Amino acid sequence: MEKVFEQQLDQDTGKSLSLYFYTNVSNMPEFRKKVLSGELKCCILKVSLIIDVFQVVVAANKAVKREKLGILVTKSVFTEMIYLMSLSDSISASLNRFGAQDDDENVVIVVIHEKENKEYPEEIVSHINGQLTSFLDIRKCCNEKLIKEIYKIGRNELETSSLVDAVISRIGGSYPIKMR
How far is it, in rounded angstroms, from Cα 51 to Cα 73? Predict the structure, then answer.
């Protein structure tokens, strides 16, 4: 499997998604500072809360659609994506829970970019010091117990669907559109 996951998002948006799974990151404080300052246009997710890349794709697609419609609840498409993944009404709680912190060594880097601009994501990840890892290994780093707790997924539900399906249904389900 390729180590970089790429996916075209909703055709109307003209956006694509590039995902990178890094382990053993040694410069997270510096990299995170560049992201928070806006120098690098991406977001960094805690890998422990990612059960499958499709979880990120669904949230990113909803975020770019909201951006196109001009109805972002947060200030950027990246924070919107994190907000949508968390299912919380609190933006700051969402960012703190799903966004990587300075002491995280294993992370997923998300770059949303114009479909034609394939060099841009590589420029972003050139700033990180870590091991680019296959997404096949992501399940080894996720905390299934915490994921079940965050998304309120009970044992009964898992008798009829997978954990991945349960998480995706919550992120992809209908939601109220909040206006600023």
Answer: 25
| Two tokens, residue 115 | 């479909």
Provide the sign of the torsion angle of the four alpha carbons 177, 167, 111, 129, taken in this order: positive
Are the CB atoms for 51 and 139 separated by under 8 Å? yes
Q: Note the pTM of the prediction, 2 decimals.
A: 0.90
> Do the beta carbons of residue 58 and residue 171 sit within 8 Å?
yes
* Digitized pLDDT (tens) for each residue of the chain, 180 residues in all: 578 899 999 999 999 999 999 999 999 999 999 999 999 999 999 999 999 999 999 999 999 999 999 999 999 999 999 999 998 889 999 999 999 999 999 999 999 998 877 677 888 999 999 999 999 899 899 999 999 999 999 999 999 999 999 999 999 874 444 433
CB-based contact 95:83 (threshold 8 Å): yes
Q: Cite the beta strand spans of 4-127 per DSSP E.
A: 4-8, 15-23, 43-46, 107-114
Max Cα separation, the chain?
45
Q: What are phi and psi of 37, to 5 degrees?
A: -80, -15
Return d(Cα 133, Cα 47) in angstroms, integer: 12
Pairing between β-strand 131-133 and β-strand 15-23 as defined by DSSP bridges: antiparallel
